Amino acid sequence: MPSLERIWIKRAHRGPMDPASTATLVAGRGVLGSADQGGQRQVTILSKERWAQVRPALGITVDPSARRANLLVSGIDLEESTGRTLLVGACRLLVRGETTPCSRMDEACAGLQRALEPRWGGGAYAEVVDGGEIAVGDEVRWEERVLPFQPPPLP
Fold first, then answer.
1. Cα 13 from chain centroid (whole Å)
2. Which residues in the chain show pLDDT less than 50?
3. Non-local CB neighbours of 84 within 8 Å, separated by 6+ positions
4. Rounded to two decimals, what is the model's pTM?
5. Which domains does the chain have, with CATH numbers?
6. What angle do CA 91, 142, 100 make, to 5 degrees?
7. For residue 69, how many other CB atoms are within 10 A of its CB?
8. What is the pLDDT of residue 136?
9. 129, 94 in Cβ contact below 8 A?
10. What is the pLDDT of residue 56?
11. Smallest Cα–Cα separation from 25: which of 131, 124, 127, 130?
């Protein structure tokens, strides 16, 4: 079952990523206590599987917190997910786009920025649509798209 594997809160710009077992997501704002609030980039999300594909290229073991994302999820492919809604526990996150790796990645580990560039390796960023409490182990899944009602054609 896809799940929330890890949570990090960045309490200051360029500050450390503090691990947490729970967090509060605030609609229209982001992670409570995080330095990044509002805008479209309220929560950043990293795929555990994509991270596992990137690590061998680095030649050393690097903790996923080096990517500086808020959430690490497993069983979810974030590639090309712009416009989709991700459910994390009872919270809804609208994916706004790909998190493009920046030079901060190379500060954490030489070559990390380049290793993360293909196929959304840096993850995705999202807006919090419906907030609430989240915890490591929560189920994560894509919200099913509900198509508008289309009456059947007349015979």
1. 18
2. none
3. 94, 95, 142, 143, 145
4. 0.85
5. 3-141 (2.40.33.20)
6. 85
7. 25
8. 98
9. yes
10. 73
11. 131
